[in-house]
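Intended use. Records like the one below are meant for learning the mapping from a protein sequence to its folded structure. Do not use them to infer anything beyond what is encoded.
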Amino acid sequence: MPIKKIISDFDGVFANTLELCLGQIETVSRSLGRIPPPREEMIRLWGTQFEKFLGHFLPGITMEMYLDKWREFGFDRAIPPFFEGVKEAIGIISGECPISIVSNREKESLGIILKGNGFEPGDFFYVQSASDTQYHKPDPRAFDPVLRLLNGSMERHEILYVGDTLIDYEAAAGAGLCFAGVLSGGITTAEEFEKSGVEPRYILESFADLPGRLGSF
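Structure written out for the chain above:
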């Protein structure tokens, strides 16, 4: 059955954010008088909705406190680039298959990074940030808003979600969506995806490879 709709994660799939964001968290943590969490521990929970992530590693630090420091350091002006070939892939795919974004990233920074890479939310069928829903991946209900917009116009297995973490896979599988895992985010290996049940043909190096692979799904 051909894929009729693509939904994508953002960090690690479109935008190369890992190293930049880890560094920002470390800097903000120190400025708030906290010891930065170990990187391997942060990576283990990477992709979790950030308020929950923050509560786990920096209890007592609110989102407002964190974001005030984040802006104070000018991190709202730091624009991580899209991975090589991703912009072109978005252009190719959008002509044939509408693309949506469902991300656990907060709305403000998601919009900043999109715009900094030459895109607006209106360039996509639908863009959902963590601020737009009470449910967040790995909860499959994170997809409810975009599925309501599609209004049953296609079967769920005709919808492909592209992500770079096992959190993404868990959410997509729970919602009955097809899933493709990308390795570009630096979080999940091909072996880890396969052990969790992702078929090798659904594992890509990058979203940039997707136009040439869609026909094989």
